[in-house]
Amino acid sequence: MTEIAYYPGCVSRATGREYDISTRSVAKALGIELIELEDWSCCGATHVPSEALAVGLAARNLTQSTLPVMTTCSICYSNLRTAILRLEDNGMRARVNSVLERKYAGARVMHVVEMLSEALKGREIPIKLNGIKVSPYYGCLLTRPGSGIDSPEHPRILEDLVRGLGAEPVESPLKMLCCGGPIFMPREEAALESTYHIIKSAKRSGADAIMAVCPLCHLMLDAKQGAIEKRYGLDLRMPVLYVTQLVGIALGLGPEDLALEMNSVSPLPLLEKVYQSIAKE
Amino acid sequence: MDQSGRTPRIGVYICHCGLNIAATLDVEELRRFAETLPNVVVARDIQFTCSDAGQNTIKSDVAEHKLDAVVVAACSPRLHEPTFRRTITEAGLNQYMLEMANIREQCSWVHMDSPALATQKAKDLIAMAVAKAALLRPLETESVPVSRDVLVIGGGVAGISAALDLANAGLRVYLVERRPTIGGYMALLTDVFPTNDCSICVLAPKMAEVYANPMIKLMTYSEILAIEGTVGHFRVTGVTKPRYVDPSLCKGCINECSGACPVEVPNEYDFGLGKRKAIYMAIPQSVPLVACIDTNACIGCGLCAEACPADAVKYDQQAEEFKLDVGAIIVATGWQPFDASRKEEYGFGRYRDVVTTLQIERMLNAAGPTRGDIVRPSTGEIAKSIAFIQCVGSRDQTVGNPYCSRICCMSSLKNAQLIKERYPDADVAIHYIDIRAGGEGYEEFYIRAQRLGIRFIRGRVSSVEEGEDGLYVHYEDTLLGKTLMKRYDLVVLSTGLEANRDAEVVGSLLGLSRRPDRFFEIAHPKMRPVEAHIDGVFIAGCASGPKEIQVSIAQGSAAASKAMQLLFKGEIELDPTVAFVDREKCIGCKLCVDTCPSRAISVKDTAFVDEARCKGCGTCAAACPVDAIEMRLFSDEQILAQIRAATAVKGEYPFIVGFLCNWCSYAGADLAGTSRIQYPTNIRIIRVMCAGRVDPSFVLEALRRGADGVLIAGCRIGECHYVSGNLHALQRVEVLKGLLREIGIDPRRLKIAWCAASEGDILARKIEEFVDELKDLGPVGTELVAALPSGKD
Amino acid sequence: MDDAAFTDEVIRLAGDEIRTCIQCGTCSSSCSTAHLMDNSIRRLIRLVLEGRRDEALSSDSIWLCTSCLLCTVRCPRGIRPKAVVSALRQIYEREGLRNRDEAFERIFMDQIRNKGRISEVLLSAAYALRNPDATVPIMEMGIELITKGKVSLDPGTVKGMDEVRRIFEGLEND
């Protein structure tokens, strides 16, 4: 059994609960043991004004395990990666280590997307998602800063993953536009505008669902979809599934394992479509 | 004593230089002092030693006193060493039997307020020179015959220019080109700026001239495999690949054979826009005009052989190896285009209507794949709106190319003009960061483009997106301060120039160094534009960085002229002031091999110095762990003798021994003198060719003999005359400081400084600072005494 | 703080690549909220380099940055514009300037400082208290999440709060 350290991040306890639940279920189904970081703390998200402090907050989490650290949140992921890059500088490392309990001496971090892509390689998919069109939404920080899991300009890792599940990835030109999540509280209008365009673009490209890989993106696309519909006077009804939920469906996990009922826009019509297409075969 | 066991007889001449020296220094006292020095048989003071009268005095003394060596205490050796070498040669001595004491630039001019201390310093300088003079040896300058043939690698416009100039001057040239034709990228371009001449029309006659010139042996489809030897005699091995067509039979009609060939592949000479057959001619004007079979594409059907009316297709042709013996090599290996697909945000390779500069050049070319039409590759229709995006792969650290590719602004200005002339209604825009149009007629060319109605949009494009009806370009018009998006039919990426990866083999065979931008480095970034660091090797054209055609041509000619200067006499003089190896002592550790910036040392059991390559920096001698490498001039024993003479009296405190490199810091010290910048008298300067020459034993000897500090000064980092000597010095100093610490001596007593020849003031300030620091440290040995239990009272 | 000192401080906080800016506009043209900004991120860097402190600090743009890093990925000079924004936010707060955006940032950081983790409920509540006009959308959001069982007051406790405090004290003003 592969062991991976798990950094759930703050939202896993609240707005991102279905992400946390489905991640644990899928990991189990894939034979991966997730060992939650013992005493994890917030990475600071996008709100830390000092770079050194941001590195320090991230490093505190990185020093809690010698295993590769997996996170489901793209913001946490980007922060942990940035910290690892900055900690290559000896001056920064010394400064940060001077305040840490356990000294930082290198770490590896991965996004759940990376974990899934790796674990699904060559694996039999019990429930092929044939006939389903999925718009993979990358958002910003899965691939940024660069030199991460895929190109920050023209990534393909999510399309490959979707294809691997038997579904059809559709290309939305706005798949990497920022959802505006980090400023949605003080600047709701600006944030909703971005999210609106993203959903509309996915819809125009014929998607049955959007696949999200970050809890903040998901919050904006799913929980805020009602507010967007109201503001723009539209009926969008676009299910937004976490990557772990989609993988879970394909692995044959039940709706409660994947907390599908927690999604604001119900993914059940999508499930029906999947089962219909299986029945046809 | 000299080799014969006889005591050398030395004459010392102290120059008044009018009042330049005599106003500060007590010349009479210096003369009396010199007379007391060992081996000195005559000492005189002379008003102007460099005058005819002064020189004649020396000459007659050489004869009368049977002098073996001469010491002139006067100005800097950088000024009059050649003069006095001539003087003593005329008097019958070997020119290397001269030593100068620099008592003007480095003494009287910089210590004008302290005549007594300055006179004491001058005494030391003279004593040091006499000590060295006693150990001088005559050195013979050797001439060796050389091959007068020249190898030119690369048949682009720079190589063509070099080859023709050499051949027309009567030298034999071997022109080696990898591709089946010469002409390089220039042969593929449409019109060229700033005159909008047809490129191939001006180049083709030159290509034909190369072919016809009996002094040029043209070797296309050939590569260099090995290069051995040195300046005068490079032994080169290469191979001519089989093109499976007999050049002596092929008539160049091409339509017969390629018409019969059933295989089509993308044409690399159209950068993928058009197609060619497996048997092909690169361009209609190919030189030589001989077909070539691409074995990667050929299916071996035999149809071309049947079709050939001249029976020229030969499937059994073999690769042929060749060997050359040449005196000089000109590297004209050119460039390669930046791979535009690396800028993924621009979509090249994904969006068919995004093309590159070279593709648009081929489209505009009447002989190109679209016969001169500007079309959207996706539909084949004429493009009505065209955007040029500048700086693709240039000025961009995200792709590791921080440099400007220099020609892209002009080539886009030119292509935009050609399009606008052909299609006056087309909407043509250039998206730029800065328009760089520096060159004769270039700014006027820019104005012409503006007048034609080409739009100039200031702002780098951030991304290109493909929509249903065309390409959408995102940018900020930074002059309007507005972020915008605009639709175009066709987007042209103005791709930059990169160092040619295919030239890396030649570069490493020759030992050429590379700049951080990966282009070949020239010997001096300003003063030696076509010389490599290796003697007898020259670099022309884009091999040393992006250049326009006219500059490449000029560089080809310049390299040719340098090669002619070198080889015309048929022999070259070897500088005798080089390194040599004591084979008894050498342990074959190869440390010297890595140290030598001229790649002059090889090791077979023991080390061997190629004297034709060695430039005499002495870095190897300092690096050798067993002292097996010695210099013919600036030898260990000479320098040690100078150190001992300097520290014999120690007439002031703190007392500093300085080692200054000839090219920058010693010249800087001279400049401090000519600028009359005053600094403390505490330093005794020893001239070395390079900071890398300073052997750890020199430093230790100086400190052991009571110097309070040692200063090593070299060229600024990156400017070393021997490329990396100063870096070796720096490394050695780091190690030495550790050693000093271990033996209980404060490592701050050893200082290393960088100083350009123009930085006399900086050097003076460094000396001043060092004196102050040493005052704080106390006399040498203070720290040893303090460390002793009894020393602590 | 005079103008030159302002420039120097931003450079110290956000990197000296800023000095090499060529004002090409790649950052602003890559920015998803550029159309809402009074000064584009490109102009913001210009204001910093010219020491135009008041204009830079009063610019609404500092608060519209979503930290998406596209500008950072693309800048041909290796500048990190997000770091410039962060530096300006930091100076803004230190100079005692206040607005609703700054309030949100401060509440967020204070939660980490005091609890080690973020509770979205407490964060929203604290923010709504200070910005009554934000109450309605926050309430709407809350109802949406409560019905889905995704609201939790307790984000779990961090045991090593000493370490968290040390991190803040040691690195916050770096």
What is this structure's SSE topology?
The complex is a heterotrimer of chains A (281), B (793) and C (174).
Chain A: E1 2-7, H1 17-29, E2 32-36, H2 51-62, E3 69-71, H3 74-86, H4 90-97, E4 109-111, H5 112-120, E5 133-136, H6 157-164, E6 168-169, H7 188-204, E7 209-212, H8 215-223, H9 225-232, E8 240-242, H10 243-250, H11 268-280
Parallel strand pairs in A: 1-2, 1-3, 3-4, 5-6, 5-7, 7-8
Chain B: E1 10-15, H1 27-35, E2 40-46, H2 52-64, E3 69-74, H3 77-90, E4 98-102, H4 104-108, H5 115-133, E5 142-145, E6 150-153, H6 157-168, E7 173-176, E8 191-192, E9 197-198, H7 199-212, E10 216-219, E11 222-230, E12 233-240, H8 255-260, E13 264-266, E14 275-277, E15 279-280, E16 292-293, H9 303-307, E17 320-326, E18 328-331, E19 335-337, E20 354-356, H10 357-364, E21 385-392, H11 408-422, E22 427-432, H12 442-451, E23 455-458, E24 461-467, E25 470-477, E26 482-488, E27 490-495, E28 497-499, H13 504-510, E29 537-539, H14 549-567, E30 571-574, E31 579-581, H15 591-595, E32 601-604, E33 606-609, H16 619-623, E34 629-631, H17 636-646, E35 656-661, H18 665-674, E36 683-688, H19 696-704, E37 709-714, H20 725-742, E38 750-754, H21 760-777, H22 782-787
Parallel strand pairs in B: 1-2, 1-3, 3-4, 6-7, 6-18, 7-10, 18-29, 20-27, 21-22, 21-27, 22-23, 35-36, 35-37, 37-38
Antiparallel strand pairs in B: 5-30, 8-9, 11-12, 12-17, 13-14, 15-16, 19-28, 24-25, 25-26, 31-34, 32-33
Helix pairs in contact in B: 1-5, 2-3, 5-17, 6-7, 6-14, 10-11, 11-12, 18-21
Chain C: H1 3-14, H2 26-30, H3 41-49, H4 53-57, H5 70-74, H6 81-94, H7 100-115, H8 120-130, H9 135-147, H10 161-171
Helix pairs in contact in C: 1-6, 7-8, 7-10
